[in-house]
């Protein structure tokens, strides 16, 4: 007979925040009782370990140094099913796709969920805006200043232009 395939598509949750906020939560919740011997791993798009929970506690020694002292998960996750990760002080460098992996004691993947984080960086916007703004304001004045120098005007006549810069 014909084979029938069923696909369950989960949309990847997207979280968007501004750089400079105190923290952001990457949501992952399950409605199942979790055994005590499970392992929860959060990784970024480069497979760096962001947060590890195993044997009833956080395993900070396995955590990548970029995320040291910046992550938290629910201490009661075995009872609540809340595997969400809290990332403190996010910056535009934290924009990434993050993966929460739930593993059995034997290392079998029980659940894998992705969350997309977009951190709107103030620094990048400020830099780009200042770069283009300075280019628009300074270039015409520099051109006028250069043309006056070529025409042989004295330095005192160019002084008002310099003060504008």
Automatic annotation (TrEMBL):
The chain crosses the membrane at residues 121-141. The keyword Transmembrane applies. It comes from the Eukaryota. Residues 1-17 form the signal peptide. One of its GO terms (cellular component) is external side of plasma membrane. It is found in: Cell membrane. Keywords: Cell membrane, Disulfide bond, Glycoprotein, Immunoglobulin domain, Membrane, Receptor, Signal, Transmembrane, Transmembrane helix. PROSITE patterns: IG_LIKE. It is a single-pass type I membrane protein. Gene3D superfamilies: Immunoglobulins. GO terms for biological process: cell surface receptor signaling pathway; cellular response to lipopolysaccharide; immune response; negative regulation of T cell proliferation; positive regulation of T cell proliferation; T cell costimulation. Residues 2-116 form the Ig-like domain. This is Ig-like domain-containing protein. It comes from Astatotilapia calliptera (Eastern happy).
